[in-house]
Amino acid sequence: MSDVNIETVRPSVWRKMRGNTGALIGGTLLAVIILIALLAPLIAPHDPIAQDLTRRLLPPFWHDRSVPEHLLGTDHLGRDYLSRMIYGARVSLGVGLGVILVSGTIGITLGLIAGYFGGWIDLVISFAITTRLSLPIVLVALAAVALGGASLTTLITVLGLLLWDRFAVVTRAAAQSLRHQEFIEGLRAIGASRTRILFLEILPNMRATILVVVSLEVANVILLEAALSFLGLGVRPPTPSWGLMISEGRDNILFDPWLIALPGSALCLLVLAVNLFGDGMRDITGPARK
Question: What is the pTM of this model?
Answer without folding.
Answer: 0.83
